[in-house]
Amino acid sequence: MERDERYxxxxxxxxxxxxxxxxxxxxxxxxxxxxxxxxxxxxxxxxAALAALAGMAYIRNRPDTPRPPDDAEPRFRxxxxxxxxxxxxxxxxLIGKPRAEVYAYFRDLSxxxxxxxxxxxxxxxxxRSHWTFAGAFGQEIEVEVELTDxxxxxxxxxxxxxxxxxxxxxxxxxxxxxxxRGTYVEFDLVYVPPAGAAGRAxxxxxxxxxxxxxxxxxxxxxxLMEAGEVATSANRKENx
Amino acid sequence: xxxxxxxxxxxxxxDTVPDPEIVNPRDAIIRVTSTAICGSDLHLYDGVIPAVLRxxxxxxxxxxxxxxxxxxxxxxxxxxxxxxxxxxCGGCFHCKAQQYSACDNANPVExxxxxxELYGQAMGGLFGYSHLTGGFPGGxxxxxxxxxxxxxxxxxxxxxxxxxxLFLSDILPTGWMAADNADIEDGDxxxxxxxxxxxxxxxxxxxxxxxHRVIAIDHYPNRLALAKKLGAEILDYKQTDISExxxxxxxxxGPDAVIDAVGxxxxxxxxxxxTHLLNxxxxxxxxxxxxADRGGALREAIFACRKGGRVSLPGVYGGFLDKFPLGAMMxxxxxxxxxxxxxxxxxxxxLGLIETGDLDTEFMISHRLPLEQAPTGYKNFKDNQNDWTKxxxxxxx
Lengths: 240, 397
Known about the structure:
The complex is a heterodimer of chains A (about 240) and B (about 400).
Chain A: H1 26-31, H2 37-61, H3 74-78, E1 82-83, E2 86-95, H4 99-107, E3 119-125, E4 128-134, E5 140-151, E6 155-160, E7 167-176, E8 183-192, H5 196-205, H6 210-226
Antiparallel strand pairs in A: 1-2, 2-8, 3-4, 4-5, 5-6, 6-7, 7-8
Chain B: E1 2-8, E2 11-16, E3 28-37, H1 39-45, E4 61-69, E5 80-83, E6 86-87, H2 93-96, H3 109-119, E7 125-126, E8 143-146, E9 154-155, H4 162-165, H5 171-181, E10 189-193, H6 197-208, E11 213-218, H7 221-230, E12 233-236, H8 242-249, E13 257-260, H9 274-287, H10 296-304, E14 310-313, H11 326-331, E15 335-338, H12 343-355, E16 367-370, H13 374-383, E17 391-394
Parallel strand pairs in B: 10-11, 10-13, 11-12, 13-14, 14-15, 16-17
Antiparallel strand pairs in B: 1-2, 3-4, 3-8, 3-17, 4-5, 5-9, 6-7
């Protein structure tokens, strides 16, 4: 039988090797012209830094799109930290209890020390009350407070009387949350902390910013109202 | 009292520490009769969960006898109770919605800052599980202070011995919720990654909830054998390409629901699938401390899941997993359900199923040790996972 030439396997033809020219090494190109790679890197970094600066300048200076105000609470724009000598803080919290109950608990000012930080006792007589704070160095600070507004189940406001060692103003509003979720409590606080600049430095150092203190305070209020006690992981009373 | 305390990575010891006492009105003090080492305790042991401090008492699976009660506790001295690992107030938005592990009022105020910054909202409170979740002293001890004791602990009948009911504290409801989150429908194939205690309970629960078939994935022969005994088909990723096998077993469809019962320390670097390859860089990041999670199992589960399927995630993760297959998740239209277990929501039903014998809770216990030998338990549960499937500690022995 004759075999078809096309179907006969053959060894592949021998590979021919062509001579290759090696191109000049890049580094040599610069070195031959008297510029070291380090200089090249430095120039590159410099150019990149300039470009970044120019970019930032452009972003800062370009005209902003006109924006109507959004619906965020104004207290967020206030920053909630320090305004000159004033500590400014504002926070809201949802408490799963009816508005009347939350208002009543808050209105009984003697409950305040159970959740507000550094407050030891509050003794109330009518619209006047006597607040005792724990000072930064273990001493006690006495403040006379006047209730400046009291709308049942809606709003409470108070302020220290002129000449108090701590100047402070507080305002609390109570609103219904939807679908029986309870009450939104909004608490805004402005005060001049004791011990002036030193007190402020200490507070910042241990991260007890006014905003954080208020947040902790409201969370404790929430625990008291919803759970009846303030949570602790302490295993013994002396550590709680 | 004696208690198992954390001293550093791979260093836990049984120390003498002060006894707990009633601190808040709703507290109770439990004398622990049985406690277990959980797979998630190994994440603490391996040092991959942040905010675990030297001297912290570990353990969150425990039960025992009520020895003291606060004025507002509903428990009575002498009652035998199993305590959920989640601490829940019962009165906040989440507790009222039966999302007990998300409780707003269990984690102490000062400890909430850390998880609020890490996760956007503060975590709930857990026993013996880092200061992210409250820094509560745990249950691998002779005595435990149990907050909100009127909501958490379930009283168990005397005729059910400890080993039968102990796992109500965590892994049984966790496996049950994993299957529940898979929203199992008639004819479903459910694939479960990880045949540790939670995976095994998830397998048992999925079959109980009517899954047509359950496919279990692991690499430890003994754990796979336990899964098989429960009625699952098994796949060993050391010998099989999981994604391909799952497609073949389901006529190309893929499993209807996938359960990742592995979590943040997944094994497996076989170069045969893209998902395993990515696990190599996760491991490097975890070792040098710039990443918390190894996501090999989760990636593989998402990759394998059928279009429009469900992803249930009981495995524990802590940080910012990258190379997350979000494209597969979106393009295939998957749903994901996850979370720490809402233990209190399941206790009654599960205790009933244990009493009627519908759920077997003892088959996975491989070792029973006195509390004093807890460090041995940790070491072996970590290093010899094939033989040590579940360790129960008995403080009284």
